[in-house]
Amino acid sequence: MTLIRSLIFFLFFLTNTILIASIGSLIGWFLSTKQRFIIDSTWSRLNLWGLKIICGLDYRLEGQENLPDQTCIILCKHQSAWETIALIYLIPYPKAWVLKRELLYVPIFGWVMYHFKPIAINRKSGRRAVKQIIEQGIQRLRSGLSVIIFPEGTRVAPGTRKRYGIGGALLAEKSGFPILPVAHNAGIFWKRRGILKYPGTIDVRIGPLIQSDGLKAVEINQKVEEWIEGVVAELPSSRTSDDS
Questions:
Q1: The predicted structure's pLDDT at residue 16
Q2: In this predicted structure, what is the pLDDT of residue 112?
């Protein structure tokens, strides 16, 4: 049953994404930043609703009181595709994503991404990618866009971790903007390389702002990693509802 529901959601997701992205890529040039992100947030909410209704996959959000009324750098645990959909709505700021540049080559999806001013990096370029994150990140932050980064760089299976990249912390050090850490356990319900979406409730926690003033990037990175990984360790590590 899980497979059937997952396939139905995939068709639902594919259809609404192609439709909304096609319209957005055509009219995006004529919309304000706020209007573009209203459309983006609507897409996110639609697919979160679809996951709940079709797959029985919901979420529980804690820490909304930590959402600042200022632009910030968002560093989030990366376990699945779920957070790339959900964070658009759950963190209600206009955001510029740091992403691999190959995503911009995807027809329709990549075209509409240009309207959201992403920081598209070549992950193999090392220091050049970090320099790009800092330079373009400062530009985005000063223009009123928050910047969202997955510090591990790629999806990591629950129970494992990768070294946190320094790019987000360096951006915080150089720009002076604070970091908003986000932890979750989405990978339990939607695996990083799988089509199955298991029923249950994803736990998402938004942490208190981590200020960057007077701190070096290494110190900032350590604070971020300790908070995110500490919270992830506290979250449920197995599904309590499993309709297979």
A1: 96
A2: 85
Predicted confidence at residue 244, as pLDDT, reads 43
Residue 217: give the domain boundaries: 2-234
pLDDT of 134-145, one tens digit each?
999 999 999 999
Task: Indicate the residue type of 62.
Answer: E
Please, which residues have CB within 8 angstroms of residue 62's CB and are 6 or more apart in sequence? 203, 204, 205, 206
Domain presence at residue 242: no
Kindly state whether residue 72 falls inside one of the protein's structural domains.
yes
Among the residue ranges 42-56, 99-113, 184-198, 214-228, the one predicted with the least confidence is: 99-113
- C-alpha to C-alpha distance for 243 and 207, rounded to whole angstroms: 31
pLDDT at 242: 45
239 in a domain, yes or no?
no
Q: pTM value?
A: 0.92
How do the residues of the chain divide into helix, strand and coil, expressed in percent and rounded to 5?
50, 15, 35
Structure tokens at 238: 């197995």
Under 8 Å between Cβ of 144 and 65:
no
- Helix count (H) and strand count (E) of the chain? 7, 7
CATH number of the structural domain spanning residue 133: 3.40.1130
Task: Count up the domains in the chain and report the number.
Answer: 1
d(CA 116, CA 221): 26
Q: Which amino acid is at 168?
A: G
Residue 243 inside a domain? The answer is no
* Gap between the Cα atoms of 187 and 39, Å rounded: 26
